[in-house]
Every structure is written in structure tokens, then in C-alpha cells.
Amino acid sequence: MSEWDPRNPESLTVRYDLADWSLEERVELVELLADADIRHDWDGNELLVPADQESVVDDILDDVEDGDGAAGAPTSLAGELEEFELNDWTSADRMEFAAVLVERGIGHRWEDNLLLVGVDDADVVEDLLDEFDR
Hints:
Layout: E1 13-17, H1 23-35, E2 41-43, E3 46-50, H2 54-66, E4 81-85, H3 91-104, E5 108-111, E6 114-118, H4 122-131
Antiparallel strand pairs: 1-3, 2-3, 4-6, 5-6
């Protein structure tokens, strides 16, 4: 990984406006960036990446938009659901936590700031929420 720092105005940075992207698309993107060891940051709905990684990130963005990205989607939700109200969470917090859920294969859905998971996964999700550093 490079020594890129998005807070340093001298670091060459490329910005991508992803305001139209769904949370699931953003989670998939974050996973693919992590798999490719590409540092990134968020400024609201804008993805920030090092300029020297622009062509790789362009390809990753195309894969996510085309639906050719990570195949490790979580299981779907069925049956009784447990709700977690996360009203004080930022969009970046939700994306980061959703990536944890995807990594664990935990089916989930977001309805604004409400996280929905199957009741069978609720205890695990509660433990993950307790451990989540935000």
C-alpha cells in the first residue's frame, strides 16, 4: 500500500461521486478495494483514492456496476427478523459494518438507519455491534 493520505492536500487524490450507489454496491466496492490493497477514504458520498490507483479503481467500479464483482453475497433474509436501530450512525459506519456482515455471510437489509437481520443471526450481530469500533 502507498503512503497516500487523503487529508494531505499534496497527496494526489481521485474523487468518485457515488451518491447514486446503493449501500450494497458500496459494501461490495469496499470489499473489492480491500482485496486489492487499495487505500481509500470517504468524504460524504465521494470515494477518495490515490491517483496512482485510478485505472485499477475504474475497473473495480465497472465490475461493481456491471454486477461482476464479489460473488460472496450474504444469504438472503427469510422468516422472522430482528431490528437494530442505528440512528446515530453515519453512512460510512453503516457501509463498514455491512462489509463485516457480508464477510460473515450474515443476511441483512437496511431500511434507512434500521438494520434488519434474521432472528437466528441476532445474537451474533449484537456481539458484532458491541465490538464494532466506530
